[in-house]
Design brief:
Number of domains: 1
Helix content: 25-40%
Structural class: alpha/beta
Order of helices and strands: HHEHHEHEEEHEHEHEEHEHEEEHEH
Number of strands: 14
Number of helices: 12
CATH topology: TIM Barrel
CATH class: Alpha Beta
Radius of gyration: 18 Å
């Protein structure tokens, strides 16, 4: 049965995370306006669970140079200590600039007005992996129950940005769909997240597929907020092919869906401020996840990456 990443994150939102210290070469690439094309490893989640080393080697052999993790639990990435995982990546010529771990209420100690050790370890381990971004791909519902709560939560986001900055990294947020179907005091939640996070401290990773079923349109958002999206999850969407799906759309190979992915990517290059274009495909129709990753890579190369 197909399990969307939205459902996956709801179940694992309290795991702990990954992030980012850039090498000199990568900083140079960013300064020169270089575009990074990589793969979110959730795209090959079952393969990574069974054989992380073999799966990463297949991706490297395809031509991938960058990956983004989606597994950090008990201070391990795909069952490995961060230093060991980085060693594996290094040996395959892969770099992990970003990773996903949901920041949860348990990561903030209100009495101490500080992060818990668990979140501090998350940032530490991200630095060990040599990443640039620590991305939270979820916002607990208790953190946006009203405007005052949301503002306080975004202040915590900014503080996380300050924490990451101490280690040469940047905190980030990745959207799903609820940010576009939720309003607080008549304002869309996603607009409020953009309004109350400091772009110097909090990067935005726009997922152009997640938003589509909830009415979010990436082109409109890029035009309304130029320069705000340092990272992008590059997806394409079709109407869901499985009757049990609660969501109306599912992802597919780039260029085969309905959202106009190429046009979105081109605008993000020109005015989105986007440097990191991360492929993510969560459903595969009649082909395997590995084959999907291969086809997506080929499409992105055709698009100039």
């Amino acid at each position: 049965m197909y399990t969307s990443r939205r459902s996956f994150l709801k179940k694992t939102a309290f795991a702990a995370a990954a992030a980012t210290v850039m090498s000199g070469d990568l900083f140079a690439a960013a300064r020169k306006g270089g575009r990074i094309m990589g793969l979110q490893l959730y795209s090959v989640r079952d393969d990574m669970k069974k054989d992380p080393s073999g799966t990463l080697k297949q991706l490297a052999d395809m031509g991938y140079k960058y990956v983004e993790h989606a597994s950090y639990v008990n201070r391990k990435m795909y069952g490995m200590a961060p230093a060991d995982f980085k060693k594996l990546l290094d040996g395959l010529g892969l770099t992990m600039r970003s990773g996903h771990t949901a920041m949860a209420p348990k990561h903030w100690d209100s009495a101490k007005n500080d992060f818990t050790d668990e979140w501090k370890f998350t940032v530490d381990d991200a630095a060990i992996c040599g990443q640039k971004f620590v991305i939270s791909p979820w916002l607990d519902k208790s953190w946006y129950k009203d405007m005052d709560t949301l503002k306080h939560s975004m202040d915590i986001f900014n503080k996380s940005g300050e924490l990451c900055k101490k280690q040469g990294m940047k905190f980030g947020y990745h959207n799903h769909n609820f940010e576009f179907s939720t309003q607080i005091d008549g304002k869309q939640l996603y607009d409020l997240i953009l309004e109350y996070t400091d772009p110097k401290l909090v990067a935005q990773q726009m997922d152009i597929g997640n938003m589509y079923g909830a009415g979010g349109r990436a082109l409109d958002i890029l035009k309304a907020h130029p320069g705000r999206f340092e990272l992008m999850h590059v997806k394409d969407e079709i109407k869901a092919t499985k009757g049990e799906m609660a969501e109306p759309y599912e992802s597919t190979v780039l260029g085969k869906g309905v959202i106009g992915t190429k046009e979105i990517v081109e605008l993000a290059k020109k005015s989105g401020g986007t440097t990191d274009f991360i492929i993510e495909q969560e459903s595969y129709q009649s082909i395997t996840p590995i084959e999907s990753a291969k086809q997506d890579f080929a499409v992105m190369k055709e698009w100039g990456f």
